[in-house]
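Q: My labmate handed me this sequence with no annotations at all. I'd like to see what the chain might look like in three dimensions before we decide whether it's worth expressing. Could you predict it?
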Amino acid sequence: MKLKYGLILFVALSLTSCESWLQDIGIKDIQKFEGPCTIVLANGGGVVETNHTIEVSIRTETLTYRDDDDKIWSLEKDEYESYSCP
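A: Here is what I predict for the chain of 86 residues:
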């Protein structure tokens, strides 16, 4: 029984340490970036600044962030030009 739990623990630790591999095979689709972050909106729409973490879907490039009121916003790739988080 100990061997079974040890194997499960080994597999779990292996998977968490292989983040890029999980992204490559499509299991992990979200990249997280610690705030503060700046998001440049498309078509001269301005700039959004957030102190919160942003999340970006690797597959769709949809960006999700929280504003100062803790409201969640999502922007599709054509709605923003770039983002940066120091």
